[in-house]
Amino acid sequence: MASKTLAVILGAGPGTGQALAVAFAKHHSVALLARNASALDSVAAAVRGAGGDAAPFSCDATNAESVDAAFAAIRAQWPNHQLKAACFNAANPFVSKPFLELEAKDLKPGLDLNVYGAFHFCQKAIPEMLKSGGGFLCFSGATASTKGTFLLETVAATRLTATPGSANFAAFAPAKFALRGLSQSLAREFGPQGIHVVHAIIDGEFQLRSMRGTPRGTQQASHAGIISTARIEGMMGKAEEGTVRRSSLPDEAVAAARTDFRKPVFDVLSQRLEPSAIADTILHLSQQDRSCWTQEIDMRPFSEKW
């Protein structure tokens, strides 16, 4: 790759993380960060298969020493590259309980990741960007960062319905509010120094290839933290009882269904967030002219009712 620039994706697992890696690899070498680096081998292979340059690194965002070690390893891997993009895409710990049943320890995982984890990540990424004359810093957020709410979705037959989940999320929302606040503070401080900071609200059920054949019942979308009860038997051909059978539907049929209203599966497929579409949107933000920077964006399916 002729490029001498670098992007770092923390939370680079399958789904949105992998899609971000593939998208940013069109312009940068990509460092893939997760607690278990070996779990990122398939993501690195996908990037390389698309003609990009990527390597996995072990990193626990909640541990400052782990973050320091990861960035040192990244610098050793690409000693002459300039860091130009960094995405904090870590999966959010989720706790749902009535407030009076919560204990202080229930808030700790979310705060450790979204406050301290993001803090550690930015303290390593921002100095590198300043050295290179600026860059792009993106945080993956959720509706809970603005409303303190959550969403429960039910997929039934060919229709998705949403019910507001406005209660029992006092352990989830504070961490997301904090992440958004950090993003806004950094945007004010480092925007004039050439660092474009974006808080990206991403909410909805994800269209993941890994969901094919998933047992019916509770499915947690790792990024947005949305729980869905899927009942899609027979929608894409005869499905076995107790499973969401998508393996019989080719990827090209999925893509066509998302853009062709005549397709019978359009109604459900298009109501799921497509990771590659999210990644393309974020990549576009990273290329904006500094005279017109987006500092917050809200991404969700066209059909949302919440």
TrEMBL record:
The superkingdom of the source organism is Eukaryota
Q: What is this protein called?
A: SPOSA6832_01278-mRNA-1:cds
